[in-house]
């Protein structure tokens, strides 16, 4: 039976009286009433009229909204298992999903956590039957995230049910399961992708790969999937995929990267790390060889190289420029780095100017930056820095078209 059918049958049963919002299965709880009616003969003079359930929960919601984090334990004690759904509805009614704030959101999360710990099936059924889409989405998200921490297979089962109704719903269950499959093998990982609706991929968490993981198979199959489905594939993809492949076989990883210029699985910095692991200090000579190869997509190579962290980038650029024996070639490399890293701001990539051979080369780099980015600015570059590079502020502004 399809997951959606299971939900429909279960919800139908709930509506028929199986006991939604009854707390732990098998326990009976007094039914909530929305109003209490009494007559004058039922109470003596001076007795207060009984508080209605609506008034009780309205007061509860107001109290919670005015509370602080230190009050949470006490407020939670007021919520009996049978009243959890009513409490959640009351809290959501205070400000709506976007106006909850940290305190109310934390309280609602803890109510759902307690419900999951006591009766996961009941909590899930209540969420599915909830008619408020914001509250329903909130509950489903919290339930799945909580279950995924201890029972990833069960969370996956629930995720599949939810995905049958809402393919755009995102939780931690799917990436957790797919990350687990990386340790099993390439075939199992691909099957885990195909089990779920395809989405536009985003970078996922680092994965640990099986010893015999077939990186090329996954790269080729995911590439084909993206091409055939308008850019849709796995919802997340391990950000260390190319780096881990390069750890095993840097040349194979590079060959795949260079043959697929329109597709991005991480970037070339992962391959460089692989070369360093296999041959410490050897990545500089390898990169220079690639920069000198006319068949290599130079602009893409330098753009991805410049996307790394400053801690990796600055010494790497300095080492490459220093190892290039031809001054004109070294200047050309630094100019390309300067333009790629700048995003139109001289200050952002000023480090590359320092290594250039002359003021004329630096001014040419400024002109190239302005042409590339349709204009540029100097940022917070000081006159002292400009003087150290042998150019004046007026010369720099003219080069930038100011």
Task: Summarize the helices and strands and which ones pair or pack.
Elements lengths: L2 H16 L34 H14 L5 H5 L7 H12 L5 H29 L3 H18 L1 H14 L7 H10 L3 H9 L7 E3 L10 H14 L7 E3 L2 H8 L1 H10 L8 H11 L4 H9 L6 H8 L4 H14 L3 H16 L8 H4 L4 H15 L9 H6 L4 H7 L3
Helix pairs in contact: 1-7, 2-4, 4-5, 5-6, 6-7, 7-8, 8-9, 9-10, 11-12, 11-13, 12-13, 14-16, 16-17, 17-19
Could you characterize what this model shows?
By secondary structure, the protein is mainly alpha-helical. It contains 21 helices and two strands. A two-stranded parallel ribbon has the order 1-2. It is extended. The relative contact order is 0.05.
Mean pLDDT: 83
Distance between the termini: 69 Å
Helix content: 55-70%
Computed structural class: mainly alpha
The description of the largest β-sheet is:
2 strands, parallel
What proportion of the residues form beta strands (DSSP E)? Answer: under 5%
If you compute it from the alpha carbons, what radius of gyration comes out, rounded to the nearest whole angstrom? 31 Å
| Succession of helices and strands | HHHHHHHHHEHEHHHHHHHHHHH
Task: Please provide the count of β strands.
Answer: 2
Low-pLDDT segments, ≥5 res: 1-46
- The order of strands across the largest sheet is 1-2
Q: List the total number of helices.
A: 21
Principal-axis shape equals extended
Summarize this structure as a short list of keywords or feature phrases:
402 residues; mainly alpha; two-stranded parallel ribbon; 21 helices; extended; disordered N terminus
What's this, in brief?
The protein has 402 residues and is an all-alpha fold. 62% of the residues lie in helices and 1% in strands. It has a two-stranded parallel ribbon.
């Amino acid at each position: 039976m399809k997951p959606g059918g299971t939900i429909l049958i279960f919800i139908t049963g709930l509506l028929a009286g199986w006991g939604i919002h009854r707390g732990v299965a098998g326990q009976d709880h007094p039914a909530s009433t929305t109003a209490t009616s009494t007559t004058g003969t039922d109470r003596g003079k001076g007795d207060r009229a009984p508080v209605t359930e609506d008034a009780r929960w309205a007061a509860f919601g107001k109290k919670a909204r005015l509370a602080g984090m230190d009050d949470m334990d006490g407020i939670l004690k007021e919520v009996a298992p049978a009243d959890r759904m009513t409490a959640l509805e009351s809290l959501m009614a205070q400000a709506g999903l976007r106006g909850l704030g940290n305190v109310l959101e934390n309280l609602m999360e803890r109510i759902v956590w307690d419900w999951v710990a006591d009766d996961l099936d009941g909590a899930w059924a209540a969420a599915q039957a909830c008619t408020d889409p914001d509250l329903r989405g909130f509950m489903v998200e919290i339930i799945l995230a909580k279950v995924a921490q201890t029972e990833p297979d069960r969370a996956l089962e629930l995720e599949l049910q939810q995905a049958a109704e809402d393919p755009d719903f995102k939780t931690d269950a799917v990436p957790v399961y797919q990350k687990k499959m990386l340790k099993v093998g390439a075939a199992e990982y691909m099957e885990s992708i195909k089990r779920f609706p395809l989405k536009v991929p985003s970078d996922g968490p680092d994965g640990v790969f099986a010893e015999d993981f077939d990186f090329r198979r996954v790269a080729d199959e995911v590439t084909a999937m993206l091409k055939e489905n308008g850019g849709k594939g796995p919802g997340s993809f391990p950000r260390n995929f190319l780096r881990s492949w390069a750890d095993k076989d840097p040349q194979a990883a590079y060959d795949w990267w260079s043959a697929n210029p329109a597709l991005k699985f991480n970037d070339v910095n992962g391959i460089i790390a692989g070369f360093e692991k296999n041959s410490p200090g050897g990545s500089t000579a390898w990169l220079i060889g690639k920069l000198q190869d006319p068949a290599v997509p130079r602009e893409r190579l330098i753009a991805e190289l410049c996307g790394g962290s400053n801690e990796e980038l600055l010494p790497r650029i300095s080492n490459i420029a220093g190892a290039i024996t031809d001054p004109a070639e070294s200047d050309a490399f630094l100019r390309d780095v300067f333009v790629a890293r700048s995003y139109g701001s001289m200050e952002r990539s000023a480090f590359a100017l320092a290594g250039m051979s002359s003021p004329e080369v630096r001014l040419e780099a400024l002109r190239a930056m302005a042409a590339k980015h349709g204009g540029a600015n100097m940022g917070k570059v000081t006159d002292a820095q400009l003087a150290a590079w042998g150019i004046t502020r007026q010369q720099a502004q003219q080069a930038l078209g100011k």
